[in-house]
Amino acid sequence: SYRNKIEYTFSNKRWILTEEATNINNDFITFTDKERLALGFHIPGLFSKVLDIKECKLQEEPSNAIRLFTKQYAIDNNLSFFDITAHSGLLRNLVIRISSTGEIMVIIVAGAEEREDYDELIARGKSKNRFKDNLSSKDKESVEALLSAICNKFPQVTSTFYVANNKGNDTIAGSPIFHYSGKEYITEKMEDLDFRISPKSFYQTNSDQAYKLYCVVRDFAELKGDEIVYDLYTGTGTIALFLAKRAKKVVGIEYVEDAIEDAKNNAANNKIKNVSFYAGDMKEVLNETFIKNNGNPDIIVLDPPRAGIDPKVADVILNTNVKKIIYVSCNPASQARDLAILSSKYEVIKVQPVDMFPHTQHVENVVLLKIIDNK
């Protein structure tokens, strides 16, 4: 087990295994509606199909037990599983986060359907879109009863939430989130730093290897104490705070506002004062005025999502003439593309992959670039 976060998907049409589909006489077997229910992972290449999971070893217990209990409770209490084709059903996702400190967060993502008082609200001139991500009072009661049952069964759960998501995808960014019980965050620890992680916050899924990854970044930075560092795509500020004690100043930028709030809280809780965090679209925030106000960087750390960096962001970075860039990527293809763009002014000095995802082909890759003196 190595994952501190796992997201399972509810489905009313689970993937039927070949050995299940026929009996000894090769006759096709039909399944009842309850036998078709799943709580597991999407089949690769078939987003509408979900493989029901009996045992998952990617996350430590009680993760497995929580998933099995949640599914059985939902069946026993006739809670509807999501139908991705019809875009209906109450239960959509189960997210379990377990921190290195032993804290456990459980999040139920519910398919937001029309409220019971929808017609009345429309009659009063309210916008349909205003209520599309709300749950009816009945559905809220059902979800809260499920969370209550989970807490009673697993008292070690320290934090529970539910989310109303009516979008066409499973991302909960921008969806209303409701705190049900316990703390409003879980805590990760790294060296002498504590990081508060809220439901929507990104944190590297492998806590042990995340520490090794950040050590590589810190080693590549070779900080002497007088540098201004920009941490772009800072998330909850983990890299920024990890570097701050050895730098003059660290500036972090991140698109997700909730993550920036976490970053600011993490800085305050760790009594780190030489950091500042900004929320917004990178290509809009990072401009000449921003750099003038915050100081020209000596080092830029890039840790973008899988899509890599926007060409406009690359242009701004090139114009800064920053001496050193450290590029952290979970997608070698987009990283290679971006390195080719940056190669007009920068050369690759070091490359260090870090295995964050055991038994898969995926790695995090850290690249150190330095400005070419004659460019």
**Major beta sheet, strand line-up:** 3-2-1-4-5-6-7
Instruction: Return the string of H and E elements.
Output: EHEEHEEHHHEEEEHEHEHEHHEHEHEE
Helix content: 25-40%
Radius of gyration: 23 Å
Overall outline:
elongated
The total of beta strands comes to 16
User: Helices and strands: which structural class?
Assistant: alpha/beta
Indicate the proportion of strand residues.
Answer: 25-35%
The oligomeric state of the chains shown is single chain
Unreliable stretches (pLDDT < 50, length at least 5) are 127-131
Distance between the termini: 47 Å
Mean pLDDT: 90
Tally of DSSP helical segments: 12
Q: Main sheet?
A: 7 strands, mixed
Task: Give a verbal description of the structure.
- The chain has 375 residues and is α/β, with parallel strands linked by helices.
- The chain is 30% helix and 27% strand.
- The strands form three sheets. A seven-stranded mixed β-sheet has the order 3-2-1-4-5-6-7. Strands 12-11-10-13-14-16-15 form a seven-stranded mixed β-sheet, with helices on both faces. The protein has a two-stranded antiparallel sheet with strand order 8-9.
- The protein has helices at residues 18-21, 63-76, 118-123, 128-131, 137-153, 207-221, 238-244, 257-269, 282-285, 288-294, 311-320, 332-342; strands spanning 5-11, 38-43, 46-52, 91-98, 104-111, 159-165, 177-182, 186-190, 193-197, 228-232, 249-254, 275-279, 299-302, 324-329, 346-354, 364-371.
